[in-house]
Amino acid sequence: MPYEMIEWEKLFWFLEFLIPKMIIKDKDKDKLDELLNSVDLLQKQQQ
Fold first, then answer.
1. Whole-prediction pTM value?
2. SS3 for 24?
3. Where on the tree of life does the source sit, at the highest rank (predicted)?
4. Which of 7, 11, 20, 42 is most buried, taking the most CB atoms under 10 A from its CB?
């Protein structure tokens, strides 16, 4: 990317800082949490 393109350079730096701050909602995360919470590890240890 040539540095002569000022608008592209501005866009690059804007996105460089914006993208890591974006919140991504993962609908499968809730399912994973539900699965992990459903496993009773204490009961498994006693057996």
1. 0.40
2. coil
3. Bacteria
4. 11
